[in-house]
Specification:
Blueprint (H helix, E strand, L loop, with lengths): L1 H9 L5 H15 L10 H12 L6 H9 L5 H11 L1 H16 L15 H9 L4 H9 L9 H4 L13 H14 L18 H8 L8 E4 L2 E6 L18 H13 L5 H15 L17 H13 L4 H9 L26 E2 L2 H12 L3 E4 L5 E5 L8 H5 L18 H9 L1 H14 L11 E6 L4 E6 L5 E8 L10 E9 L6 E2 L5 E3 L7 E6 L3 E6 L7 E8 L12 E6 L10 E3 L13 H13 L5 H11 L4 H13 L2 H4 E2 L1
Parallel strand pairs: 5-16
Antiparallel strand pairs: 1-2, 3-17, 4-5, 6-15, 7-14, 8-13, 8-15, 9-10, 9-12, 9-14, 11-12
Helix pairs in contact: 1-14, 2-14, 3-5, 6-7, 8-12, 10-11, 13-14, 13-15, 18-19, 19-22, 20-21, 21-22
Length: 642
């Protein structure tokens, strides 16, 4: 730790950028590595957009950068991208969600809480990293990120090592200090210096009373007291309150003397942007970095600039290392020598968002409070079979790195999966200006739970009726019993006719059971009205009272259509998509050129253009374009950052 403190003083007057790059130059010279020629402007721009915003640059954005003649245009581009608060935060939030076990598009059970609102605000405001971590370890009321310390409340019997205080200790040590305490939360570690009492000592900072120490789920008869992993950082009175303990551990972790704190973070960001950490694995900061000087220089630079996260990202992205050509090498080779960044596979979110940016086909996020939905980036929604196979984790534990290797399941999902096929089909229709407008519903209940809603709508002239029952984020949708009670059709003064399909019954709170059309979630029922003269549809839409307990937590949306609905857009859309839709649609060579420049950052080669023209010829241009999109998006050139 001492060299970093000395280097901080040395950097007080020196140029940090020169220090970082000079450390790398000295490293290359010492290892006999020829200084690489920087990548082309097009490659740099694609890297930068994907790393800061999470999707590829449009052809117009790429051309603007390529035509720029300013000598510092790369630095200026990075500054410009970071200045877009929304795009930056909506990309980097996935990095933090993995680290902090936070998720979106899911229903949390029990006491677990989302920290999304706080996290987005912290990213948009560029909260300094020391304050960021202090808030996580000692959440300020009332709008602090308490969910990080609450952790996951597992159902049923769990091991003693998974109590919330021990989870908080394990997560904090792993994420902020590069120390894995999971083994020694059960027993003294067999592979590191950390002991059982170390884990319980840190966990005690997150408990309002002394913790009983368990060894392999057996009581030892001993009680723990707050003790930081590095005792020289300070101590706290064993009788201190929970608030005092949390304040103390936040102070110890982020203290300027704790040089492991900035080193751990800059190592994580380096790995994120270059594919391999200065220290590997990133959760074991006791290991030797491939360049002590470079790690120390980056960490000192980060502290010198008041823990400015965006400044750190800019510093790395404008360095000689980041601008070097990608090098294929074994990540775990014994005597690793840095020659350039590794090729990095797009994350699940980068892959999905880039396809949406190119085709204009974004997933929609329903707003339960209103009747509208909004265009959404992938991170805000439930994961799909496609994004799960591409590595988006189920965040019930800390993920400091994702699985990036290709798998058989991934290949099957990309080639034959419904998610990918549907996305490319709709994207092709949209690019050819053939995507029909989505029909509007004639009834929309909004998200409802315990309180049913009455339906009485005019269906004059309708030949069919589509009754949709949609899940709107129930905790356990398989156990939700819902449907259309007392459903009937009427015409003028004639007696109403009950739907023949309504063979079950629903019971709403304080009501008698009523005959009902009961459906699973989601479901679609089609009622033939042609020639029958019905003018009104009436029903009570709701959830059976047996589905109301909190472990089911039903949220259901009922909709009625008189035209076949588009299940990808059941409600009207408000707002603009994250990337403006291009006007250069409709087919032909212009579309081919735009597709290649947007997806790959270059014009198609002559042979590629000939093949693309063949795809778009004939009686089925939609299918042809769908195949062309598939070929481009499955190419390594699209799927990797080189």
């Amino acid at each position: 730790m001492r060299p970093l403190i000395l280097l901080l003083a040395a950097l007080a007057t020196a140029s940090a950028a020169d220090t970082v790059d000079s450390s790398l130059q000295a490293y290359w010279a010492a290892h006999g590595v020829t200084v690489p020629t920087p990548v082309s402007d097009a490659v740099f721009a694609r890297r930068a957009y994907l790393d800061v915003w999470g999707f590829v640059p449009t052809p117009a954005q790429l051309s603007e950068f390529l035509d720029d003649r300013r000598p510092e245009k790369r630095r200026l581009l990075v500054e410009q991208l970071l200045a877009n608060r929304r795009n930056y935060s909506e990309h980097w939030v996935s990095f933090w969600n993995d680290l902090l076990r936070n998720d979106e598009g899911v229903i949390y059970h029990g006491d677990r809480q989302t920290i999304t609102k706080w996290l987005l605000r912290a990213l948009e405001d560029n909260m300094p990293y020391d304050r960021f971590v202090s808030a996580l370890l000692n959440p300020p009321a009332p709008d602090g990120p308490a969910g990080f310390l609450i952790g996951v409340n597992w159902r049923g019997d769990v091991s003693a090592s998974q109590t919330p205080p021990l989870q908080a200790a394990q997560n904090s040590a792993q994420v902020f200090l590069g120390i894995n305490l999971k083994c020694n939360s059960c027993h003294d570690s067999f592979i590191s210096k950390w002991k059982l009492k170390d884990a319980y000592g840190l966990a005690s900072f997150f408990s309002d009373s002394a913790l009983e120490i368990y060894r392999c789920d057996v009581k030892t008869g001993e009680k723990s007291a707050p003790k930081f992993l590095f005792p020289n950082m300070g101590s706290v009175d064993p009788e201190a309150s929970l608030a005092e303990r949390r304040a103390a551990v936040a102070r110890f972790v982020t203290a300027p003397e704790n040089t492991r704190f900035p080193r751990t973070f800059v190592n994580r960001v380096w790995r994120r942007l270059l594919g391999r950490g200065l220290v590997e694995p990133v959760d074991d900061m006791d290991r030797k970095p491939w360049s002590d000087d470079l790690l120390n220089a980056l960490a000192a630079d980060f502290v010198e600039h008041k823990y400015d996260i965006e400044f750190l990202i800019e510093r790395i992205m404008t360095s000689a290392a980041y601008q070097s050509p990608a090098v294929v090498t074994a990540q775990k080779e014994k005597n690793y020598v840095f020659r350039g960044p590794l090729p990095r596979r797009l994350t699940a979110e980068q892959f999905a968002d880039s396809i949406s940016a190119i085709t204009g086909e974004w997933r929609l996020r329903p707003l339960s409070e209103t009747r509208a939905s909004t265009y959404s980036r992938e991170w805000r929604l439930k994961s799909t079979p496609l994004t799960r196979t591409l590595g988006r984790p189920i965040r019930d534990q800390v993920y400091t790195e994702r699985a990036e290797d290709a798998t058989t399941l991934q290949a099957l999902e990309m080639v034959n999966g419904e998610t990918m096929a549907g996305l490319l089909r709709r994207g092709a229709l949209r690019l050819l200006n053939q995507l029909p407008p989505a029909p509007a519903s004639v009834f929309d209940s909004g998200s409802i739970g315990a309180k049913p809603v009455e339906v009485d709508i005019d269906i004059t002239g309708a030949k069919k009726l589509w009754l949709l029952t949609e899940d709107a984020d129930s905790y356990d949708r398989a156990r939700v019993v819902a449907g259309w009670a007392k459903a009937e059709l009427a015409a003028g003064d004639a007696p109403p006719v009950a739907l023949a399909e309504a063979k079950g019954s629903l019971q709403f709170k304080d009501k008698e059971p009523a005959p009902a059309l009961i459906t699973a979630l989601p479901s679609q029922q089609v009622i033939d009205l042609d020639g029958k003269g019905y003018t009104r549809f009436r029903a009570t839409a709701g959830v059976d009272q047996q589905s109301l307990p909190s472990e089911i937590n039903p949220h259901v949306r009922f909709l009625v259509f008189t035209q076949e609905p588009n299940r990808n857009q059941l409600v009207r859309v408000e707002g603009e998509p994250p990337v403006a839709v291009s006007s250069e649609n409709g087919g032909g060579d212009k579309l081919i050129s735009r597709l290649y420049r947007h997806a790959l950052g270059r014009d198609p080669l002559p042979a590629e253009r000939r093949v693309a023209r063949e795809f778009l010829k004939g009686k089925h241009p939609v299918e042809g374009l769908q195949d062309l999109l598939w070929a481009v998006f499955l190419s390594p050139e699209f799927q990797f950052i080189y």
